[in-house]
Amino acid sequence: MTEAIREVSGLGPTDLTDAILSATAPLVLRGLASSWPMVRAARESDRAGSDYLRRYYQGATIGAMLGGPEAAGRFFYNSDLSGFNFQPVHAKLTGVLDEIEAKSAMHPAPTIYVGSTTIDTCLPGFRQFNDLDLGRRDALASIWIGNRTRIAAHYDLPDNVAVVAAGHRRFTLFPPEQLANLYVGPVDFTPAGQAISLVDFLDPDFDQFPRFAEALKHAQTAELGPGDALFIPSMWWHHIEALDPFNVLINYWWRQSPDFMDTPTNALMAAFLTMRDLPPAQRKAWQEIFRHYIFEADEHTAAHIPPNARGALAPLTEDGARALRTQLLKRLNR
Q1: Helix, strand, or coil here: 62?
Q2: Residue 279 and residue 276: Cα distance in Å, rounded?
Q3: pLDDT (tens digit, 9 = 90+) per residue, 192-225?
Q4: Strands ordered across the beta sheet of 159-166
Q5: Which residues are CB-neighbours of 102 under 8 A, at least 6 positions away?
Q6: Dihedral of the CA atoms 38, 164, 253, 269 (nearest 10)?
Q7: pLDDT of residue 24
Q8: pLDDT recorded at residue 1
């Protein structure tokens, strides 16, 4: 029921255009990083890929997640959503790589996963030979390492280019408007920071989650191998399966907004506190206020107010953001 994500091929690490990196739909960039030495090593063998990472590692402690074989690679909650089915640990990367290799023949194996670790801290020098040119974008480059794993569908605020450097990964993406059909779990108690879909994509329970069938009608999928990349637009839901005994993903996150802008998640959490439980008529009134001032705001919204008197209605600047933050803190702390 899913459709394939649109693909382009023939691009290299220096060929990414603004049109690609500011798109609002996902795009597979087939072979984008084929020239990376890391990719060439991983295509040779898992051991060669692992050894390539080791040459840059200088001993920094990293965070990892460990799950038992019964989890079948799925990092998730426990049965009543009061905790999780994995254990976070601090470890050395060499130990993680040794454990992945030692368990490579097991299936199912204990699940081992290093998530979102800053490359420049963990593997200094790696990006000198394995990197993308993203132009003026100040992207955060992270590495993800593990064996066969499944990461539940979630969204990220930044735009993202995800590069498969070793192994194969299957991506299933949904546009933001499928939120209600993905049966998302708690927003303030999550396995890794982002709210996730509670649906098991490999064994969906359509009795418990009937609207997921509608979500699948809008899903887009792709399977990527070493050197392939995927552009994931901001706020698109994505479910990721690592399919091989040894998998490495490099991803780049950046926002299309200034650094001084806070995350909209703060506004959502404040709305839970201040608006969600208002009487319906009042919620509807606030919906109109947000439509006017936020979601459909344009140059006419405050045109009737002299520019020097617009305050929070003026275009946001770094000084304006600082002033708004101060006002909010005062209001929340009174």
Answers
A1: strand
A2: 9
A3: 999 999 999 999 999 999 999 999 999 999 999 9
A4: 7-9, 27-30, 229-232, 159-166, 247-254, 140-146, 111-118, 61-67, 86-92
A5: none
A6: -140
A7: 96
A8: 67
Q: What is the CA radius of gyration of the chain?
A: 22
Which overall architecture, per CATH, does domain 3-254 show? Sandwich (2.60)
**Separation CA 100–CA 78 (nearest Å):** 24
Q: pTM for this structure?
A: 0.94
Q: Where in the chain is the domain with CATH 2.60.120.650?
A: 3-254
228-253: average pLDDT: 98
Could you give phi then psi for residue 86, rounded to 5 degrees? -140, 165
Sequence-separated (6 or more) residues with CB below 8 Å from residue 133: 13, 14, 16
Q: How far apart are CA 39 and CA 60, in angstroms?
A: 23
In this predicted structure, which of 46-50, 179-183, 320-324 has the lowest mean pLDDT?
Answer: 320-324
